[in-house]
Design brief:
heterodimer; A: mainly alpha; 2 strands; 3% strand; B: 383 residues; 80% helix
Chain lengths: 614, 383
């Protein structure tokens, strides 16, 4: 039973390769979508069994001598497998329309996309840590090849190189940790108590480094903005469902392997909070739509990891619910950005505007996702944020609440900036001349499904909480005392004050809106189109432009952009390594020019001396 | 099954692949073909003999044939490289031969001061033969001036066959390694780090690949030095993947060089994959395999070698190995992105890759992938 999703995805990959020359571009997309959908159904069918038994174990095949591909599917596995196959399928549906104009590499594209999804499913199903590492690096390779899909474009492949170098180097932390665990415990199975007993702080830190690079946590986050020159569905899959969530899975999985030391919580919370701030502050100044969303991903991953770092049932519930919600709303936003780029050929927000008039359906799904990421009630983001605040208060982590609240404000700023900059205001002249069109139906369907799910889980989060999140949290060894009802209202007593606070906020919002409406009725018309608090609009125009906004943020946070960018340090390290290499080469090359025999004889004599001494 | 048979079959397959490739991308004149046949015969018979001095002589004879193959290019540089190689080869053969004759193949050390003499002779002999740091001097010149497939055969067949002799020595005379483990280990680490740094300093792709062999041999030597079951299995699997991957890498570079008629360097070529897509793809596969990225075959040996490092030297040694691999990642990633990927520059004429050569390279790449995805049957034999 547990093998079915992997079998389906493997079959899809084989079919894509086998029928690559026969199928049309659209049919390849349909095949990939159907594969993803069947895999999703197969994963969903595991839910009742996992809820009943706690976990399903199976040995699939012997991979290497003494290393079998053993799977252990528990609640946590299902959370991520559902995300990969579910959001992955919606993205594949979107691809049917999006990739139509691509002339080359379609078979390669869909094969890699399915391998990507299969890699994450394999990672979260694997009980054997060595197999988990193989899956970990398989998705790493897929992301490398997908980011560099347009391999004749220097910008795209430079991004791919950064993905490969940063994530693969950090991945050695995971491999070294796994091998050290094996040396100490004699097993690769994370379910084996002996492995848990060997799990030390050093191992934790090694694995955490790998997770940080995968999940774009500060300071290993800088590859993701550079990976934006890939086809948009790749960005969506990378950011929302598969790639960045692998690290989240790993951090959550630590709870199932060994009890956490108190300092581990501190480290994870600190990393999470710093990441959410840095990501948001950098997002504020972006003028490229996809780069803005990339920095937003960094920030949102900070929220998710912070939830996991709290180490309570509510914190884990918040983290996991947030992970799924982020998959949905960030997937929608990326696909929306892709639709904009598809229609206009640009993602530079300084050149865009007024698209709501010509892309009415796209703007609707964008608005739903934007509201969700900001945390507007009715969206799943609101429930996720609310749970996180609640969990942090519950755990006595007031600082986390303040930081998360502050970052939520930043989030609202940069998302509104993107929304207004792209969809509202007057359409620039060059766009008016271009025949901008609404996204094709398949693309709309892909985005629409994700946006609808944002609303569904925002209104009725219990649909996700009870069958999916609860078994996951229980599987990690926590009791479940999280009562959640419609709109994320907490029904258990612990969150009563917070829920009351939420009601207060909603009442205030309503009151503000009412005052605004009454004011409009009294004057009969809008006084100004944009409320600037009395300040004049920065440029002649009808809105605060993206450039104005970016300049303002850059001025306000100027020192942060220098201090919090670790790339210059990486460049120095790279240059230093190159210098060392040249120095070694310069030192050894003269020995090789004409004197190699004499030098070899001298070295041999040195070895003879060393043998006697050593 | 004896691992010698697996290696023998692999070598013969590689000879066949190289011969097929050379029909499409010429590597030399009739002399080259004759020497190729002689080398294949010598290696085939030598490996089939299994163990003993006869086998060593056959493999050594194949190395001398390889030196002659270097000379078939006829350029002054190639002749100079051949002279260097030959001189050092003689020294290596003398050292190894003397070491073995003085008791190097005995299960227990000979009496008196001989064990130290034997260990030193064998260490120097094998270090020269395998081009370990700091005894690597013959390799860069050969890589730069010989035909690409000649170099590929030297590092994939001659070197790897010599390496299996070292594994054999580890099994029959463990004292040679155990009594001087620190020295062997220093040699391994020097090769790992030094090879990687030297590879990073190169501009010529074939020289870079040559130093990557030095780098890789360091890992293999570590497995042999420790001598545990997992260490030896890792070393053998690593050697096997090295053999396959190096033919792939030199094949890709050789195909481009053979077509455009000049060496491929970091400075004169950009975006080659646009003109040579198959060569670019197999170079990427070969590079990632050499680094040990799963699910390619290189990982199957590499994780065992890391495990050996963890068992033998704890976190410090395994982390050092990971850092050395990180350096390898840097030079391979640089080569991939400076030479193969990105916007094409420098070459304006449209070329097509010869179909036979493409077929050979693709088949080899598929083997490397399949062995990585399903390593069980191979590791069942070599493990």
């Amino acid at each position: 039973m547990t093998a079915i999703p992997l079998f389906v995805l493997t079959s899809g990959i084989v079919l894509e390769l086998a029928l690559g020359r026969v199928l049309s571009r659209k049919d390849k997309g349909r095949l990939a979508f159907a594969t993803g959908l069947i895999a999703l159904v197969a994963v969903a069918l595991l839910i009742p069994t996992v809820a009943r038994q706690g976990a399903v174990d199976q040995t699939l095949f012997s991979w290497d001598q003494g290393v079998s591909f053993q799977v252990h599917v528990d609640g946590l596995s299902l959370v991520f497998a559902l995300m990969a196959t579910g959001i992955g399928s919606a993205i594949l549906l979107y691809c049917v329309g999006y990739m139509t104009h691509e002339s080359n590499g379609i078979t390669r594209f869909y094969t890699l996309m399915l391998t990507f999804i299969g890699g994450l499913v394999s990672l979260v199903f694997s009980e054997n840590l060595l197999m988990a590492y193989v899956s970990w690096e398989t998705i790493g390779l897929c992301s490398y090849f997908l980011v560099g899909f347009w391999y004749k474009e220097t910008v795209a492949v430079n991004g791919a190189r950064k993905v490969l170098v940063m994530t693969h180097l950090a991945g050695y932390g995971l491999l070294v940790a796994i091998l050290l665990l094996h040396v100490r415990s004699g097993t690769f199975l994370w379910t084996d108590p002996a492995l848990g007993a060997a799990f030390s702080s050093g191992i934790f830190l090694l694995m955490l480094v790998a997770a940080m690079a995968k999940s774009v946590l500060f300071p290993l986050h800088t590859w993701i903005p550079e990976a934006m020159n890939a086809p948009t569905p790749v960005s969506a899959l990378l950011h929302s469902a598969c790639y960045v969530k692998a690290g989240v899975y790993l951090i959550a999985r630590f709870y199932a392997i060994a009890p956490w030391q108190p300092e581990w919580h501190t480290v994870v919370l600190a990393v999470g909070c710093v990441t959410m701030v840095i990501g948001a502050v950098f997002a504020l100044v972006q003028t490229d739509l996809k780069r803005l969303l990339a920095f937003s991903t960094i920030s949102q991953l900070g929220y998710i990891v912070t939830g996991l770092g709290l180490g309570t049932d509510l914190g884990l519930a918040a983290g996991l619910f947030y992970a799924m919600s982020h998959g949905l709303f960030k997937g929608t936003l990326f696909l929306g950005a892709g639709a904009v780029q598809h229609a206009t050929g640009s993602r530079d927000m300084r050149k865009l505007g007024g698209l709501a008039a010509v892309m009415p359906r796209t703007v609707r799904v964008w608005l739903i996702a934007a509201a969700s990421i900001i945390g507007v009630p009715l969206g799943n983001g609101f429930v996720a944020k609310w749970l996180l605040y609640d969990a942090a208060l519950d755990a006595g982590q007031g600082v986390v609440v303040v930081v998360a609240w502050l970052v939520s404000v930043f989030t609202a700023f940069y998302v509104l900036k993107a929304t207004v900059g792209v969809f509202y205001g007057d359409m620039p002249e060059w766009l008016c001349r271009r025949r901008v069109h609404e996204a094709p139906l398949a693309m709309q369907a892909g985005m629409g499904i994700l946006a609808a799910l944002c609303l569904l889980f925002g209104v009725a989060p219990q649909l996700l909480m009870r069958p999916v999140i609860e078994p996951a949290v229980r599987g990690l060894g926590f009791d479940w005392a999280v009562g959640l009802s419609w709109l994320g209202v907490r029904t258990s007593s612990a969150g009563a004050q917070v829920t009351a606070g939420a009601v207060l906020v909603l009442v205030s919002l309503f009151a503000g809106w009412a005052v605004y409406r009454l004011g409009r009725v009294a004057t009969g018309k809008d006084q100004v189109r944009v409320f600037t608090g009395g300040e004049p609009l920065p440029e002649a125009g009808d809105r605060v432009s993206v450039t104005d906004f970016a300049d303002m943020a850059e001025g306000a946070f100027e020192p942060v952009y220098h201090v919090a960018d670790p790339d210059p340090i990486y460049v120095v390290l790279w240059r230093g390594t190159e210098c060392l290499a040249r120095w070694v080469d310069d030192a050894l090359t003269p020995l090789n020019e004409g004197h190699s025999l004499a030098v070899t004889a001298a070295l041999a004599a040195l070895v003879f001396v060393a043998v006697w001494l050593w | 099954m004896d691992y010698n048979i697996i290696f023998d079959i692999t070598f013969l397959l590689l000879f066949a692949w190289v011969a097929l490739y050379a029909t499409a991308v010429p590597q030399g004149d009739k002399r080259w073909w004759g020497l190729l046949a002689a080398m294949a015969a010598l290696v085939g018979v030598g490996m089939a003999l299994g163990r003993g001095l006869w086998r060593t002589w056959f493999i050594d004879a194949a190395a001398f044939v390889a030196a002659a193959m270097v000379a078939t290019r006829g350029t002054p540089k190639a002749l100079d490289a051949m002279r260097h190689y030959l001189a050092l080869l003689v020294l290596s053969v003398v050292c190894i031969g003397a070491g073995l004759l003085l008791g190097g193949e005995g299960a227990t050390p000979p009496g008196g001061a001989l064990p130290n003499v034997v260990a030193a002779l064998l260490l120097v002999g094998f270090a020269i033969k395998l081009a370990l740091l700091p005894f690597y001097f013959w390799l860069p010149g050969v890589a730069e001036s010989a035909a690409p497939m000649t170099t590929a055969l030297i590092v994939s067949v001659v070197d790897v066959a010599a390496f299996t002799e070292l594994v054999h020595l580890r099994q029959v005379a463990p004292w040679v390694f155990a009594d001087h483990a620190a020295l062997w280990l220093v040699l391994a680490l020097l090769s790992m780090f030094g090879g990687a740094l030297l590879a990073l300093a190169q501009r010529d792709l074939k020289r870079m690949l040559a130093f990557s062999t030095v780098d890789d041999m360091g890992y293999l030597l570590l497995g042999v030095t420790v001598g545990s079951d997992v260490g030896l299995a890792g070393a053998l699997l690593g050697a096997l993947s090295h053999a396959l991957l190096k033919v792939l890498l030199f094949g890709a570079v050789g195909l481009v060089e053979g077509t455009i008629g000049e060496p491929v360097t970091l400075d004169n070529s950009r975006g080659l994959a646009a003109r040579f897509p198959v060569s670019g793809a197999v170079f990427i596969v070969g590079s990632l395999g050499m680094i040990g990225v799963p699910p390619l075959f290189g990982f199957v040996g590499r994780w065992r070698l890391y495990l050996t490092g963890a068992e033998y030297g704890g976190p410090a040694l395994v982390l050092a190995m990971a850092v050395a691999t990180g350096l390898a990642l840097l030079y391979y990633a640089r080569a991939i992105h400076r030479v193969w990927l990105g916007r094409p520059e420098g070459i304006t004429v449209s070329y097509s890759e010869p179909r036979t050569a493409k077929g050979v390279l693709v088949a080899l790449a598929v083997v490397v992938l399949l062995l990585g995805v399903f390593p069980g049957w191979m590791t069942g034999v070599l493990g």
